[in-house]
Structure of 2,3-bisphosphoglycerate-dependent phosphoglycerate mutase:
Amino acid sequence: MQRRLVLVRHGQSEWNLKNLFTGWKDPDLTERGVEEAIEAGRRLKAEGIVFDAAFTSKLKRAQRTNQLILNELGQRTLPVVEDEALNERDYGELTGLNKDEARKTWGEQKVLMWRRSYDVPPPGGESLRDTVARTLPYFVREILPVVLQGKTTLVTAHGNSLRALIMTLERLTPDELLRRELFTGAPIIYEVNADSTIESWKDLAGSPAAAS
Ligand SMILES: O=C(O)[C@H](O)COP(=O)(O)O
C-alpha cells in the first residue's frame, strides 16, 4: 500500500516580500506567491500525484496556496480541513518588524536563535518547541491516521509549523534543524512506512533523499 504525505510551504506572501516577521498575521499571497503555488501544483501533477485528503491552517496564505495546488490538479472540490494547529509559529513582539532591522537592533546571532533554534522563544512568542507542542499532536491525531490508511495527503502550511513536523519526520537534531530551510511553494513528498517511519522523501526544491 502506498502511504504518501506531501508538505508544502505557502507561496510568497505580501509580508515575505516586505521581509516582515509574520507569524499569526494574515497577509495574502503576492503575484509571485500565486505563481509559486500554481507551479507547485504543476510539479505534483508531473509526479502523478492525486490527493485523497488535504489539510491547511487558518491563515489565508496557506489556504490559497492549498486551493491553487488542488485547482492545478483538477481537484478543486476535494474537502479541505482547516485548523489553527497548523498556523505559523507565533512571532510575539517581533510580529510586523523588519527582519534586517531586527538584526541591526539585536544582532545576527540573537535573531538567528529566535528564528531557527529549537528552544529559544522570540519575546512574547513561541519557540519551535512550543510550535511542535501545538502542531505534532494534531498531526498524530488527525493527519497521520489518514496517511496510514493509504490516502495521499496534502498539508499546506508555514515555514515553522512544517519545520516542527519535519524535525520529527526526518529525525533531525536541533542542530540539523537550525540549517533546515523551507522554500515558499516547494513540495516535499514523503513515502511513509506502515509503522509511520519515513521510507524516503523527495524535496521538489532539491534532490531526492533517503531516511537515515
Ligand atoms: O512568520 C514569518 O515571518 C515567516 O513565515 C517565517 O519566518 P522565518 O523564516 O523568519 O521563521
